[in-house]
Specification:
Strand order of the largest sheet: 1-2-4-3-5-8-6-7
Radius of gyration: 28 Å
Distance between the termini: 85 Å
Structural class: alpha/beta
Number of strands: 18
Largest sheet: 8 strands, mixed
Number of helices: 8
Strand content: 15-25%
Helix content: 25-40%
Order of helices and strands: HHHEEEHEHEEHEHEEEHEEEEEEEE
């Protein structure tokens, strides 16, 4: 009986080892499955069928703004001055030189005027005074003022197109209606004001070189009333229209000074809302793509939302008006340092103080804004009437129109998979009209067109509108 017993034991061990091996092998295959899937080659037909030669693209404009040219010391100095006003709640005093929102206005206007002197008189400083009403003004008209610095465009064709950068200089404590409480507002939003002001210095200095002159007009804004209901933002939109401007783009910088996470500085977040063309291509989304392409993915983190969840900023009035508008905001917000009356509770310090800011990150944001503004203002006007036809054919047909411009080199036709977030250049052509994309399905891609200057500056892309071909429906059925 002994040999038989040993044989059964050995057989059981072999069976157990076999089962263990099988389970381990199965787990290995399961764990490696994503890797195999990622390495698999798609079996989709190539579009176009024939290899498309890559177009020769013009390089980006020379003379880009260098990071080391950003004066972070003057940015921090302006923030400290604004914090020294105690509060800048829009309900506070406009006449007290030492405390209140008027104190903040004076510091901003003084800094803009310093920059204007160094611009050989090109930069023009304007204080816009207006009244506005909201639930946060107790339903009564509230006197407000915003400060604008304007760098006129050098090209008569584009001088009435304006690119705007803004930050709001009002602040708030925990009680939005109490002007007696302190509200230092270093990050929200003295940081954004400092970016707007420093961008004015950087771009006006770059524009002194005729090769880098801004063809379109630039407006550097520090606005009030944001915390009371985006009052300054709505007024800025109204003011631009009153001056006869067409808004080419609006860059709102709000809460862009802090980056406390390990490994800082990180990328700044760039928010842009969806549009009505296939729910993805608003003018603001195209502005965001243009900024990311100018500054690089290492600097810009695109967020496909109009703003942070459940919140808003001064770009919103422009977005709602169908204009290109985006918002810059720091990577991770610390809500103990936003909208808080300064205090300490349970060992936690509340309050928006300058000591929590990160100068390296703040300087990066200023440089990214300034360079984006510089290139956008150097570019030709975007094309118009961009159309996509070619349904039920093997070829996509892209057409567009454009006014004459001797400084324009031509146009880039852009395409991307419907699931991709960034454009690629399909072709370059010197003239407006229609281009046939042979062997490219109208179904599988989105298309757009942008203008390219001889200086290499690109306009914002204009997505193509599709011809609408609704399917046939039974009689009496509404589309």
């Amino acid at each position: 009986m002994e040999p038989i017993l040993m044989t059964k034991r050995n057989s059981s061990r072999r069976s157990l080892l076999a089962r263990t091996f099988a389970v381990g092998l199965c787990i290995s295959f399961i764990s490696l499955a994503p890797t195999f899937a990622q390495q698999s080659v798609p079996h989709d037909p190539a579009e176009p069928q024939q290899n498309q030669p890559r177009p020769k693209l013009l390089p980006r404009p020379a003379g880009s703004i260098a990071r080391q040219s950003v004066d972070t010391k003057s940015m921090r100095a302006l923030i400290d001055q604004l914090v020294s006003c105690g509060t800048r709640l829009s309900l506070s005093s406009w006449t007290d030189a030492k405390r209140g929102i008027g104190c903040g206005r004076d510091y901003i206007a003084a800094r803009f005027n310093e920059i204007a002197k160094d611009s050989a008189g090109k930069l023009q400083v304007v204080v816009d005074k207006f009244d506005s009403t909201s639930e946060r003004t107790s339903g009564k008209p509230l006197h407000l003022e915003s400060v604008y610095a304007i760098l006129p465009g050098s090209d008569p064709r584009l001088a009435k197109t304006v690119f705007i950068i803004s930050g709001h200089f009002d602040s708030r404590p925990s009680d939005i209606m109490n002007a007696e409480l302190d509200a230092p507002g270093a990050d929200d939003d003295a940081s954004g004001v400092s970016v707007s002001v420093e961008s004015a210095r950087l771009v006006s200095k770059a524009a002194s070189n005729s090769k880098n002159a801004n063809r379109a007009t630039l407006l550097f804004a520090a606005i009030s009333g944001e915390e009371q209901g985006l009052l300054g933002g709505y007024r800025l939109l109204e003011w631009a229209k009153q001056q006869g401007y067409t808004v080419g783009g609006m860059l709102d910088n709000d809460i862009v000074g802090a980056d406390p996470a390990p490994g800082a500085p990180h990328r700044v977040r760039l928010f842009s809302g969806n549009g009505e063309i296939d729910d993805c291509d608003s003018p603001g989304r195209e502005l965001a793509r243009a900024i990311e392409e100018i500054d690089g993915r290492q600097s810009i983190r695109m967020i496909f939302r109009v703003d942070r969840y459940g919140r808003g900023g001064d770009h919103y009035p422009f977005f709602k008006a169908g204009l290109p508008a985006v918002r810059f905001t720091e990577p991770l917000e610390d809500y103990t340092h936003q909208h808080q009356t300064p205090r300490t509770e349970k060992g936690i310090e509340y309050g928006d103080f300058a000591k929590y800011l990160n100068s390296a990150f703040l300087g990066n944001v200023a440089r990214d804004n300034a360079e984006a503004l510089r290139q956008l203002a150097m570019a030709p006007a975007p094309p118009t009437n961009a159309k996509l036809t070619g349904a039920v054919t093997p070829d996509a047909k892209v057409s567009w129109a454009a006014d004459e411009d001797p400084e324009r080199a031509g146009f880039e036709i852009l395409w991307r998979e419907t699931t991709e977030s960034r454009w690629q250049v399909y072709d370059f052509t010197p003239s407006p009209g229609e281009t046939v994309l042979h062997g490219v399905s109208t179904d599988n891609h989105f298309f757009a067109v942008r203008s390219v200057g001889k200086n290499g500056a690109r306009s914002i892309a204009v997505p193509t509108e599709m011809e609408r071909r609704p399917p046939p429906l039974p009689a009496g059925t509404k589309q």
